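user: Please review this fold.
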Amino acid sequence: MVLSNNKIVRMAAALVSVAALALSAACGSGTDAKSDNADTSDITQQTVNPGKLTIATGEPAYEPWVMNDKPQSGKGYEAAIAYAVAKKMGFKKSDVVWTRTTFDSAIAPGAKDWDMNIQQFGITSERKKAVDFSASYYNDSQAVIIKKNGKYSKAKNLSSLKDATIGAMVGTEGYKYAKKIKDDVQTFNDDAAVAQAFNAGQIDALVTSTVECVYMVQSDQVKDATVLGRIAGSTDPNGMGIVLPKDSKLTAATSKAVKELNADGTIKALQNKWLAEYTTDLAELK
């Protein structure tokens, strides 16, 4: 039998209609489609274990970032920040699951088995090639260490150190701000070498990040030393951020949560509570 062109066209149209009906049935009603979209947009369902937020920190985690190495307590600056961010994102405290990783593995390229990682990660362009970062939840400054009972122990400002021999790690923010005190700065390859020079009496003062300065003194890495104060105007513009896997679906929501915590004063209050030794407890050097 030979079909006319008109009949062929009508049969083709009928087949298209049948296919369209079948596709519509397979996709479900408009209400079902909206439900699917709603599930996709629910941030709590975009985690490695839907409904739970897996947060990693160091092994061990140090004070005052995490108290007693127990992030689940919510005590310590980063533990408190983690729970505050989780709440902003719609997770209850009981939905947060903690795990541990090394610092280096957290910022290495590749798949992750956690949603977030928080352990004082400085935000850098190099690290952004491998992982995502939230907005900053803490911006460190630079500080000065001197001998506790030395020649410069009574110094009240940076100009009082102009005759001191100052050391810093080459290529760092510490070196940049040491150069603001005086042009002639002794340079070293790392903070450990700076500390050794300080202990040997080769330098009178050293400049590095405030967090590192406090750690050096508390751990006795520098002997008979004290943190003279924080350098005014030396706040790190990049700061520390929560690390997320590269292209994580949670990155935007995490940054939004951090920004809201900054705006409503929560972050400032938590810093005053947990990080006073890096901030308000130290004099500001101008």
Q: What stands out?
A: The first strand starts at residue 53 and ends at 57.
